[in-house]
Amino acid sequence: MNGIRYVRPGGGFEPQMTLFEKTEVNGASEDPIFTFLKSGCTYTDTDFDPNVFYSPLRVGDIAWNFEKFLIDKNGKPYTRYHPSVTDTATLTPDIDALLNA
């Protein structure tokens, strides 16, 4: 992944780990895993960015980087968090509920 070399920490950094390939999370070419995740949870936002570059637009689309999905022990989507949720304390009650189920 050539782009990694030119971003922080910079200086020719090359990760020494396996990287996965980029995939589509919305639109006609979205990866099936994201279709599955989105179908199992309510959406986090009803506004569309006017600069989106894919179609079709769906109300359940992933709004931005760092949108999070919590999956239960059976592999089913349990809930989903808006990208603005950054405090892990917000996720803790849901994680505890799943661990204690």
Automatic annotation (TrEMBL):
PROSITE patterns: GLUTATHIONE_PEROXID_3. GO terms for molecular function: glutathione peroxidase activity. It is found in: Secreted. The keyword Signal applies. The keyword Nuclease does not apply. Keywords: Oxidoreductase, Peroxidase, Secreted, Signal. This is glutathione peroxidase.
